[in-house]
Amino acid sequence: MTSDHSPNEQQQIRQQLEHELQSIQFKGHDHVLHQTHPESLRSRIHALWNYEFDISLRPAGIAGALTAATFAAFLILFNDPSPSVQDPASSSSSSSQRQLIQIGGNTYWQDQYEQAVKQDES
Amino acid sequence: MRVKFKVKHIVLYVLLPLLLISSTVYILMIPQVSAWLHGRTNQSLAEQRTELLEDLAKASAPERINIIRQKVIGSGGSYTPFSFDVYIGSNSSQSGGDSESASPLQPAEQIDLLNEYIAQSTPGYELEDASQQLVFLYDSLGQQQQADQALQQAMARFPTPSEQRSQLAILQAGRLLNEGDADGAKEVYQKIHPETLSQNTDLNAAYALLHARLLYTDHQADQALAVLTDAIKELKENSYSSGSDPASSMGYTPLTRMQQTIQTAIRMDEYTAGTIQGTLKRSDGTPVAGAGVFLIAEGDLNSYSSNVFDSGPYHTMTDAKGRYAFHAVMPGFYQLRLGLSFQQVDGWTWQVPADPWIHVTKGKQLQQNTVLQPLIQLKQPVNDQIITDNQIVFSWQPVKGAAYYNLEGGIQYPNGSTRSVVKENIRTPSLTITAEELYRMSMGFSYGSSGDFDSVVPESMLSFMNPNGRLSWNVIAYDSNGQQISQSSGYRLTRESMGNLPFFYLKNRILTPADRILLDKKPEEALAAYRQDVAANPQDTHALRMLTRLLSTKQSIMENTEGEAEYIKLMQRQLTLSPSSQDAYTLADYYYRQQDWTAYNKYHGLYLALNDSDPSENEIALNSYDRSTYAVALMRQNKLQEADRQFKLAMQQDPDHRFVGSYIANRLYMDHTLESALALAEQYPQHESEQAAYFWTNLLQDMQAERKQYSNTARYDQELQQKLGWYVQGHEDRLKPWASQSSKDTPIMQKFMKALLEVR
């Protein structure tokens, strides 16, 4: 086709073509879909593996902040600041190297003394 | 702005690294794994024991011997027999170590394994180590007979002439001698082959020491002395030929000490060894078995090491009934020292007798029973209690048989602490005092280096006046004879024995600006600030108190007497504003040194009045040192009779008889006879590290001899009275040059005067 057809002619040709194609219907949707969205496990994983996220940074920032806050709250709520209390009897037999401390005229095992002081503070 | 990323990117760059990190951390946190990584250092004693026993069960016979050598006997020098966790003696209570280092095995298991090793291993140094450990273990269980048998068996494993056999024989003979079996000891001694010892100087010294003791026990003191003299000579020659200092050799000191002991014994006409025996029990009657008991001669007391070799030949362990005995003890003065395990000492204390000296003389058998007392429990204020009241009520558990208590207060500062007596002679198990009384007390000051006033520790200056300072207290109980019964300070190593913590805070005052400057470590500026405060308000007792404290501390640290006049004037004003016995004592002491007797009498009288005590009424009101200086002050004022009386009281209070020289001089000046002075010297031997106990006795005996040889005894007596007069009246400036003159024909009299000038 050359470009020397007048716009009038083009109009005529288009109408004729539409008329001729009226009876032809496209039935390959499924096939095409199958090709674009494969259903084998491998290709599914492949699809998942290559799944692309597209996120706006603004909501992402909010979500990140929320996550951080939740995490911090979790730490504060569930982390006991005092170390687990040891039974002195078991600790005396479990540690072979305890240190003595001389304070206030007395001699104590350092771990036991520190524990007692902590108890008095609370 | 938008970002695009794929799932695979998140997985590869975020999740995977996170997983790796967290799993690594987790593995490291598992104790077993971390123990495996760190070479099992955190394994508990119980685990070590189980593992060791399992290893031994699996091993073949030769492997077992190897394991015992490595794990039970330990490698060279790691084990010292006769070492204890805690040593308690009159001038020391020291810890053998400040950490727990026990064997994982039970004593009975150790004994079995050591016996196996001795029976089956090839003879060598480890076998000798093993037998020494075994003897110690048996002794610590109170099984002395088994110990002797084990030693016998171990000796039989070595060939007859061998160094190890000789060493074990010396150990055995020493044990027999201490147990009172002198004949048995002699028999063992005679079988030793001295030629096997030639290479080992320490062993040679031990051999000579044993020989000398055996000879002395056999009433051959002169031969014993000859043996020691030869051994010392040989040791010196050996040391010089190898280019070393003989004194650095371990055997040197014991030899020379024994030499001196026997020399003194011969001079004092003593030819028989004595015996000391006793028991070690708790106050409820339970015997303390397996405790170390050391009998330490006067000359060895100041050696700080608790090493067996430094503490002389007399050491033993209590048997199952807590009994101990020392036989073949040389004449002389001794003190007991105990060696205890942490378990034995925990919650208990041993109060050394008020007169700790044991005098072994004329072969007497002495009984010395020793009792451990439970520590006193404190009631209040304790456990870091905060006190804001003007009054502090101290209370503690009463002690049975206690006539009175002394209460001590302490302050803790960043790098240390000090303690000082707050109140003496408390008749009830409680004491109520005002905060002001505590504020008045000055403690020993603490500082970095002399010449640097800035290095003074501010907390030690403020003492009880620092509301942020952690304060501590403790009590000591005495019976009616002034003998200590028990105390609150000691080893508190279990929950039960720990009791209340002896700490409290006194938050009854607010820091002044000058206090803050001081706490800021600017003592010079603080001094100026306190001075300003005093100028602004002469009634400001706090500023005055701090000013005098800082002035006297500055003098001590700077080692000069600059500003002393100002200090004394301020002290006098302070004493008027807020009378305290401590300040009165400070002034009395100042005028004592100035020999200003009018002022001294005034402040000493004030001190006694403030201390609610009268020196003639209550014999424990003045401590022995204060009473001695009081007696000297009386002597200087020519009140000789009263001085004599006070000296006598001081001698009864002070087992060391520190001022016996002045007592002798006072008596000699009064009575004019050397005989009565000599009687005093014999009755009150002076125990001082530098001199032997018989120092004054020997000196006076020598003086008697000098007087006899002197051409004109009347002139000798005249000379003696004149020089004594100088001493008695305090004319040391005249006495000193005369005493140090050479070419005098009375060298002993000069030596006597020189010794008098040293009494203080």
Provide a descriptive summary of the structure in words.
The complex is a heterodimer of chains A (122) and B (760). Chain A has 122 residues and is mainly alpha-helical. Chain A has six helices and three strands. Chain A is rod-shaped, with a radius of gyration of 40 Å. Chain A is 60% helix and 11% strand. In chain A, strands 2-3 form a two-stranded antiparallel ribbon. In chain A, a hairpin with a 2-residue loop joins β2 (100-103) and β3. Among the domains of chain A are: 1-52, no CATH class; 95-121, no CATH class. Chain B is α+β, with helices and mostly antiparallel strands and 760 residues long. Chain B has five domains: 7-37; 56-82 and 103-267, Serine Threonine Protein Phosphatase 5, Tetratricopeptide repeat; 274-372, Sandwich (Immunoglobulin-like); 375-510, Immunoglobulin-like, CATH 2.60.40; 622-758, no CATH class. Helices cover 50% and strands 15% of the residues of chain B. Chain B is built from 30 helices and 21 strands. In chain B, the strands form four sheets. In chain B, strands 2, 3, 5, 6, 8 and 10 form a six-stranded antiparallel beta sheet that branches. In chain B, strands 14, 16, 17, 19, 20 and 21 form a six-stranded mixed beta sheet that branches. In chain B, β2 (86-89) and β3 (92-95) form a beta hairpin. The longest helix of chain B has 23 residues, at 7-29. The termini of chain B are far apart. The model of chain B is unreliable at 75-79 (pLDDT under 50). Chains A and B meet through β1, α4, α5, β3 and α6 of A and β1, α3 and β16 of B.
